[in-house]
Each structure stands twice: as C-alpha cells, then as structure tokens.
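Long-time lurker, finally posting.

We've been working with Response regulator transcription factor (Elioraea tepida) and I want a structural starting point before designing mutants. I don't trust myself to interpret raw outputs, so I'm hoping someone here can both generate the structure tokens and explain anything notable. Sequence follows.
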Amino acid sequence: MALARPILIVDDDRALRETLAEQLRAEGEFEPHAAESLAAAEAALGGGNARFDAILLDVGLPDGDGRDFTRTIRQKGVKVPIIMLTGADTEADTIRGLDSGANDYIVKPFRLGELLARLRRHLAIFDNSDDAVFSIGPYTFRPAAKLLLEAKRNRKIRLTEKEAAILKFLYRAEGKPVPRQVLLNEVWGYNAGVTTHTLETHIYRLRQKVEPDPGNARLLVTESGGYRLNAQWTPEPTGG
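Top reply, 14 upvotes:
Generated this for you. Predicted structure of Response regulator transcription factor:
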C-alpha cells in the first residue's frame, strides 16, 4: 500500500478545515495538515523540512487573499498543485484564481468525491512532470527525467525506469523503512514472476551509482526486511 501523501489545508473555517482533514485522512492515501491563516500556511511551507504534495487553499482569509498568496509562493519556487476553495463562482473569479498560478478552482459547497478526483488527477500530472524535483543527499532528483544531478561535482546520473521508481517511492516514505515486498508490489506490481532477488539487484546497481562507498551504504540503507532512504545525508567534504 502506498504511503499517505501530505496535503496542506488552508482555511479559516474551523469546522470545514477539521471535517475536510478527517475525510481526507479516512481515505488512507492522504495525511492532511491544517493552517487557519496565510501566516500559518507560510510557516508550514517554510519551516524546517516540511514538505507537502498539494495545497488546498481558501481564497478569502483573515490576513489576505489566497490568490495573492499563490502568486507569491509560485515566485518563491513552490510548484506543487494548488487547488483553490472559494464561495465566489463568477467567471472573472475563476480566471483570476487560475491566473495567479492555481491548478484548479472549486466552488463551495463542494462534493468530497469531486475534490478527491481533482486532487488525484493533479497529483498524477505533477508526479510525471518536469517540475517534480526532490533533494536526496547531495543530489537533485528529477523523476520524470530519470535523472540525478550532483551540482558540486557537475555530474549527471542516468537512472533506469525501475531505479527512478524505487528512489521515488523510498523518498515518499520520508525516512521510514519500506519492506521489500511493499517495494516490489509498488514498483513491479503484483507480478508473480518477480522476486526479491530482482529488487536486490536493482538496489545493488543503484548503490553503485549513488553511494560514494557502495560497500558502506549511507544513502540507500538496508533495514530489517527492507530499505530506507536517508535523504538528509550528505557526504563529508574531502580535504583538498
């Protein structure tokens, strides 16, 4: 089963915020986080290693307009899908929302099923776009291009489709160990002809590409029954 994806809900209506969070969590595929204002949203987006796969954003908030906020965070490099939630349903409102950089615009009250369908669609599009970029150790990972970039050494590492899928799924686990069978099912599907040996071979080849010392893995770590991606690890600088 895929790991829950973190979603940021920004709305000053406490009842709606809590209900939406509860319903999203009940689906099992999302891990909602709530913010009651733009200031709280900005703190959530900028604090520490906070990472969200999508943002559900109210237009009218006590400390500002969600459309202006969207424009600002887009300029700062936030590329994840943003779905605006609003009571304003005129064509001009929709155009203004989309022009600000939002991916979609849903009028309140809305059906949860419609919101989920649109959210899943935008996540799928984003995951396969060139905008999906992740930091893994000393590398910048572009899953769509199946590419790792190491800026310090001006190096490009080409990945196979399966190698990119393994890294992407382990990254989504946010440092938690993933059992071998779960990784097999997610990357290869429920294919009876694929064994853990196939996965181990791919892990071995990945380590040859990404680990400074493949025999002493620090990035792609073996755990009891599975693997863990230590995405925060970076090699110690060498003397020169």
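Before you design anything, note these points.
The chain has eight helices and 14 strands.
The chain has a mean pLDDT of 87.
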